[in-house]
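Bug #77: duplicate submission created two jobs. Keeping one. Sequence:
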Amino acid sequence: MEASVIVKEKRIEVRSHLEKTFCRQIKKDVYNGLTASKKSIPSKYFYDSRGSELFEKICYLPEYYPTRTEMSILKHAAPQITNDFPEGDLVELGSGANWKIRMLLDSIDPSHLDAYRYVPVDVSESALISASEELLKIYPSLKVLGIIADFLHHMDAVPNDRPRLILFLGSTIGNFTEKEQRRFLNTISSSMKSEDRLLVGFDMIKPKETLEAAYNDSKGITSKFNKNVLHVMNRELNANFNPSHFEHLAFYNEDKGQVEMHLQAQRKVEVAINDLDLIIELEKNETIHTEISSKFSQRRIEQIVEDSGLSVNRWFNDSSKWFSLAELVLK
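Kept job's structure:
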């Protein structure tokens, strides 16, 4: 796949696969989402530089348990994971900040770090470069190949000429519908070799009160994060959304086993999206669906994994089993 090289130095190279496809893809996604009977915007458009910064703040919130729970699991499990993966590429899909990969890198003998290459894959160029440059300062023998791409569409941009430990953390898989989860895992498994492994984070089912508090924090940072997607629409598609006309809405849909985030119109709203030659109208209380976050049972995970040509090699859990890391291999 053709890519442009953004950075090329002795220990780091960053390639972009979005310059020629991003404009076309966002137009397609947003047009389809906002002309549907139930309006939506894909959650991947949260993550411009401001969105990435806001999400980093969310991860520190007392109500938001997923990040600290997953980090505690990783800290405990990292030596087992890296001992069984003595060399190759550490591929992190949706890499964002570098906290989690550092758990793995810290478990590797510094004299052996040159046997690894870190391959972060993210849509945010600023977040990827900033996180990678920080890693290079901390780990003097580490090499980085950064890939600015949408991993849903550009998995063929990820090298597979070395053994790979593919990391898909943060329960990002929960942002997909079940059909999309299966399609994604099928795409990954079809690119894997026998020596490759896939480590996936899953947020498990837990009390409704805990789930809803995590997405409705008292400081209102998740609200700002949700509304930021409207700023992205204004900038990228020459739209005129007024974020003050919308309120953050997040709740747990027990029937579907997922937290849903919406932007709810507080009045009748008309928005021009000039680059799409489109005008949309929302009635008061009508919503734009911006994100789902599915919550999993172990049985459901095993079924999805099995249907995708993979099997669970081992589980890593916290003591309350609020969050799980599943290490997957080819069947």
